[in-house]
Amino acid sequence: EVKFLGHIISAEGITVDPAKVESVLQWECSRTVTDIRSFVGLVGYYRKFIEGFSKIVMPLT
């Protein structure tokens, strides 16, 4: 098992690093358009792990 670019790669496959998930959960509520864009950019990096990502963020863009 190895951590690489926010992912954990193992014999079972690729998963998100739990520390990165925690940082997203602790993200303060966005109050400006710039903050929202930053947040969408951050979580967009992990979009392949989020089912229906595009539908979820569509109202934010």
TrEMBL record:
Superkingdom field: Eukaryota
Gene3D superfamilies cross-referenced by the UniProt entry = 3.30.70.270
> Can you name this protein?
Retrotransposon protein
Instruction: Give the species this sequence originates from.
Output: Cajanus cajan
The major lineage groups are:
Eukaryota, Viridiplantae, Streptophyta, Embryophyta, Tracheophyta
